[in-house]
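User: Okay, second chain of the day. Same drill as before: sequence in, structure tokens out.
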Amino acid sequence: MILRSCLLIIFISFNSIILSNFLFADEPMSAIDWLEKKINDPPVFFTYPSEIDKINDIEIEKMVLPNISKNSIGIYPSIKIGIKSDLWKNSNEIEISTILEKIKISDLYYLNRLLKRILLIESDPPIIVDDKKFSGILFLRQRILKLIQMGALDDAEALIFDANPTFDPNLIDLWSDISFLTHRFERFCNAVLKGYHNSLDPTHKIICLARSGDWNAAALSLATYSSINEIDSDHEKLLINYLDHEADLEIINKHICDEDKPIIIYLCNFSNINMQTPNYGVKFLYNNLGRGKSIRSRILASEELVKSGAINPSILFSTYKIKQPSTSGGVWARTKLIQELDRIIQYDFNNYQYLSNHLKIMIDEFLKNKLLTAFAISYGEKLKLSVSEYSLLNDLILIINVLSGEYRDLLEENIIVDPKLKNLISVLNKRDIRLIERNLKDNRTTIINNDNTELQNVILKASNGIYPEKVIFMHDTKNDYSNQDGLVLLNAIFKISNSSNYDITDIQTGLASLVKLGLINDFKAISNELLIMEYFKKI
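Assistant: Same drill. Structure tokens below.
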């Protein structure tokens, strides 16, 4: 009887264990459960040794000075782009930050490049608005944000380092974004682990601990924050996958990776959730430029970053030449066209008809993908060597060099065949004469030609610094812009870049402002680009 009772107890216990395992087999792993299994068998992390740690071990005495503005910080002086250093002196940091925030990335290459230069200049600071969030640093923050938005992460990083973000809590969020977008963590993580920025999300500390090689501390931190509900379940799973690639926990709510947050996208990559969708801005393409990426990825990233003004076109056109395309269409069509053009330039430059036909196809392809200006900058000078008696080819070369800005020497040597192109060149000549006359203080009335397009007449008016009859500089704003050159400049860019379908009034306002500010080369480049874009639409 006793034996039978013992066997019955053993049988019940055994079945209870099996049933328990069956019922809870699919229960999601928590950070604590995972830690219990992994604490004695941590994964191996490879980290790069940092020289910065040696520097940061030195004790630095921190002293806070009141009412000091960091808005003046820049990479190079304003005089390099022909602007006075007191550009912002009569404007306050809120109003110039507001208009800068509203400026969109344009389809016009030269406008984006002008914007980037302005974001990087060192100048006298605007008026500080006391008792406001980010007072004394608001304009610097907005400049860095705009550079990040453009994908100009190297420039954004250089600007933020000049502001010494290690001890500035007003910059730590931007520094975090840049670090996770570039994957350059050493200085950022050193500041986090030194405890300079305790207000950050616990996720930052966990990642930085792991990258430093202290896996146990990272794992324990994750378990601790998880136990007190400082990290939600999906973030917790992303972090577990980051710390242990073999965990491979399923992220049920994959919409978490739709968040426009660099740290989340960084973690999603480790969970093999593809987040490179068209919904993401160019700032997430930076790491696709690296040699470890496929040629296709590198080209696509380079194209978008060139269009935004973030990188030089030479990077893109060098990338086109790395590899022979294995297929056709899309990015490979442009690759093949560039490689064939290089072959023609080197070996078959005198075959004018073939070169002409090839350029027609190239212009169509690069215009369609908003890369024609970048192409012109890269190949304008090279194509000048093929100017000959073949007039149709000469027209194409002239168009390309109008975009590059190096066309004056071509006008004396060639007869223009296309009447629309002939009219365009006539407008450019009149424009340039008016710019000279304006410098001589000759304020004669601009004569409008009825044969010109509306855009052409607007550019001629703007060359004399003439605004439309009724000008509203900013929507919902009635400010006096006198003696506020910086505000006028930002408004000029805003008007041109934000105009829907290139609104004529906005374009005239923006271009006339550039002339009044003395930014003649920028005015010429942007108006050239506008005229060529219009020319192809009219053909």
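The two ends are 104 Å apart (CA to CA).

User: Thanks, on to the next one.
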